[in-house]
Structure prediction request, 172 residues.
Amino acid sequence: MKISSNLKKALNDQTALEANASNTYLAMASWCEITGYEGSAAFFYVQAEEERQHMLKFVHYLNDMGVSATIPGTKSPASNFKSLELIIKTALNNERTVTKAIHKIVEITQKEKDHSTYAFLEWFVNEQVEEEKKFETILQKFDLIGRDKLAINEIDKILNGMSATPSDIGSA
Ligand code: FEO
Prediction:
């Protein structure tokens, strides 16, 4: 079956959103690295790779459906950040934006009765629940542990631990 031009556009737009998310996390990883937050850098490098895998899922799906994927250009992400806490807040907001975009595409598939694309998107719906939860949990640590140097060092260690367990690398 063919997907509609409406869905083709939505899926290509999502490809761009995932590519931008990957670049944003790469910029965050780089900032963390030069700032001395090694654990956070490791965490965000993994996040950047995960988002790249998400982008590839959309590219492959579009190609599998017989419509060529449009490989997106990416915007230059912000490269200077005020604090680790603000980075996590920004990341959470980014994930919320992605969730809304995914839900919108799901609504189109429902309207158009496109069951294939609906099934394809199910993985992303679940993934977004996990992604939002992950960043909410990290954000809570600032209230629980604190914001002084020792606390940030502790949070950096936690992020390092989280970087060792990527949820979906290689499953694209
Ligand atoms: Fe692929 Fe975290 O959105």
About this structure: The pocket of MU-OXO-diiron is lined by residues 18, 21, 51, 54, 95, 98, 131 (CB under 6 Å). The chain has one domain: 5-71+81-163. The chain has five helices and no strands.
